[in-house]
Amino acid sequence: MEKSTNPADRAGATTRARGSGPAVFGVAFAFWITMAGTTAPTPLYPLYGDAFGFTPFTVTVVFAVYAIGVVVGLLALGRLSDQVGRRPVLIASTLLSVCAALVFVLAQNVAAMLVARVVSGFSAALVTGAATASLTERLGQHSRVKPATLALFANMGGLACGTLLAGVLADVAPSPLRTPWVVMLVLAAIGMLGVVMGGESSDHRTGFSLRFQPLRIPSEIRSDFLRSAMAAGAGFAVLGVLTAVTGLFLGTVLNQSSHTPTGLVVFIAFACTAFGQLLVRLLRPGTALPVACVGLIAAAALIAVAMATSTLAPLLIGAAVNGLATGIAVGHGIGGITTRSAPQHRGASVSTFFAILYSMLAVPAIGVGVLIRQTSLRPAGETFSAVVAALALCVLISLIRGTRKTA
Question: What is the pLDDT of residues 13-26, one digit of tens each?
Fold first, then answer.
């Protein structure tokens, strides 16, 4: 059969190839497994503590360096896929995920864990922008499956499933500190292979240049941006602390020997964060952030009750409520940036928004670790819950005052 020389025919064939099912699945799977690798250590922290003899404070530091790695990666390499293409960056991110899993497999001390977590942070920073852009280019805005929705579930689904999968494997498989990472390593390698076979989705390259992305708060929506960032940041702080110390709480306070419940708590938190970002579409813009603040206050109260009464049910419900509220706040913030800020600065504004969120993921976790060292887990958790509730209440009061002024 004679090959067409019509440019339009060739462009159409290229678009169909880029948007083919296997290529889309390959990118989504690579996104999912890279994010899964970042939360996989959560149910394993108590085992690492026993094996390496470190304290709860060390656990929070090990967790926090991941978030710091994400922030640095976003600011330094957030535009890399625009410069060199989506596929090279996706390959690099999955390769880093493989490397992080390999370091965990071979880890014999805390230093190795810290290295693995920094590498995981960079992998997450690289994959987030590259995979989201690649899915948008492959599917197009008129696809039956919306790229943003698929990217959301690949991202949050990975964060949710990584911890649950690791917890189950730690309970049922031999060598609980090795088997989960061997599985993660194999899955990440499969994800990298899928990306390699899927081809490139972007024709545009700006050329590589290494410089930090400048932080930018859009002046035209400054107050709404800051309120959204504060509310979503409060929710991310809870996600960070849940990820860092849930295993400690279940093991030392509830005497849970199984690692699956730890994975379940964090799974619920991140899964509900994804659903919260979809739920925001059903809310009016003026009600979304107040609803999120009320949800964050309720979640903080539930977590405090779980600490005070040493019961699991309030923790599970609190994780779900916090996830929904956080998702609503994140969705509201991103929606405001993408629809109301200057187009030429949207990328920088989104990067700034997520840099704030990931900073909130890290710093409070370390603060809780310090409190645990000075007191114990329960009072530290109760104090943290009060601070989160106070921050959400401040945002809510600010919203009410702003509404009265414009009335």
Answer: 444 445 568 889 99
Burial group, residue 289, by CB count within 10 angstroms (0-12, 13-18, 19+): buried
Helix count (H) and strand count (E) of the chain? Answer: 15, 0
Query: Residue written as tokens 């409060």?
Result: 234
Chain centroid offset of residue 371 CA: 25
Query: Which whole number is the average pLDDT over 103-109?
Result: 96
Does pTM top 0.70 for this prediction? yes
Side chain identity at residue 203, one-letter code: D
Does the pLDDT at position 348 exceed 80? no
* Pair 326, 294: CB distance under 8 Å: no
The token pair that represents 267 in the structure block: 């799974």
Residue type, 153: F
pLDDT digits (tens, 9 = 90+) for 58-89: 999 998 899 889 988 888 887 788 788 889 99
Whether pLDDT at 407 is above 70: no
CA distance 35 to 55: 26
pLDDT digits (tens, 9 = 90+) for 228-258: 999 999 999 999 999 999 998 998 888 888 9
CB 119 within 8 A of CB 99: yes
- Amino acid of residue 276: G
Please name the residue that has the structure tokens 């959204």: 228
- Look up residue 43 and give its DSSP letter: G
How long, in residues, is the chain?
407
Checking 247-252 for CB contacts under 8 A at 24+ apart, the result is 247/42, 247/43, 247/44, 247/45, 247/46, 248/45, 248/46, 248/49, 248/56, 248/59, 248/377, 249/306, 249/307, 249/315, 249/377, 249/381, 250/312, 251/46, 252/377
For CA atoms 7, 13, 17, 18, the dihedral sign is positive
Q: What tokens appear for 329 in the block?
A: 């706040």
- Could you please report the per-residue DSSP string of 310-336? T-SHHHHHHHHHHHHHHHHHHHHHHHH
What's the CA gap between 88 and 200, in Å, rounded? 8
